[in-house]
User: What shape does this take?
Amino acid sequence: MTAPDPVRAGRALNGAAAALLVLEGIVVLFVPRGIAQTGPGLTGPRLTLLLVLAVVLVLAAGVQRRPRGVYIGTALQVPLLLTGLLNGVMWFVAGLFVLIWLYLLQVRKELLGSPFGPPVPPRSETPPA
Assistant: This one.
């Protein structure tokens, strides 16, 4: 099944991807609080790593309308998931975000024909003369 207006559906899905990346960036900003209370605590490199990841996630939300935006967002799911190495609960939280991202890619594939490609305009179904 493809969307009746793939260009419009593509814009809507890009907006959903951007919103998800912003939410991921906000969630990453909550991680230092959890790290500070466990293990070796919150060190400078850990805080820097998390702040850079949060900023990159928010910046990636801004490029979702570009052709490579979905590729960038998909690549950022890996470091998001790896925040579980810093705080165990992030395996669960980041895992949920990754599952939502994969679902978004699946919906994109169903509506646009490709999870990463640009929206393809529908072919007119006029019979040959």
